[in-house]
Design goal:
The protein has 146 residues and is an alpha+beta fold. The chain has a three-stranded antiparallel β-sheet. Strands 1-7 form a two-stranded antiparallel sheet. The chain has a two-stranded antiparallel ribbon with strand order 2-3. A hairpin with a 2-residue loop joins strand 2 and strand 3.
Length: 146
């Protein structure tokens, strides 16, 4: 199944989380086909990471645009993993902070299409449970057990 732009705000958020590796099961992100030209920067741990926007996945460096992605990209990144919730939350938060620094640097350098990634990563700090999809369910289970 294909997801085709225009993307809504919730889908942009989900895609950017997967692209930045701040998901329960991070995978290699979708990258620009021109990433090896020497102009593309390292951001989020990879060179040429595409950033989700309403009009599609955009390369902050050269403007390359990809208007589609497979739904399997999101399902793979969001699938549950066999990892303690606290360890997962710490891993995701470390990754979020690192990626946020990288994408802020791109914006400061004039690559303004990276701003939607910055906004996604900043919003995660304000929503602690958004970092770990299992956290609300685990808290509810703990409350019932108490």
């Amino acid at each position: 199944m294909w997801l085709v732009a225009p993307f809504d705000a919730e889908l942009i958020d989900r895609i950017n989380r997967a692209q930045a590796g701040v998901a329960p099961s991070p995978a290699y992100p979708l990258t620009c086909p021109h990433a090896r030209d020497g102009r593309h920067a390292l951001a989020g741990g990879y060179i040429g990471v595409l950033v989700a926007q309403r009009r599609g996945l955009i390369c902050p460096t050269c403007g390359y645009q990809q208007r589609w992605l497979t739904v399997s990209v999101l399902t793979a990144a969001e699938r549950a993993v066999d990892e303690p919730a606290a360890a997962q939350a710490q891993r995701i938060e470390r990754r979020r902070q690192s990626a946020l620094e990288d994408f802020r640097r791109l914006v400061r350098a004039g690559q303004l299409s990276a701003q939607t990634m910055v906004e996604t990563l900043e919003a995660m700090a304000a929503r602690p449970h958004a970092r770990c999809s299992e956290a609300p369910a685990q808290e509810a289970a703990l409350a019932l057990a108490a």
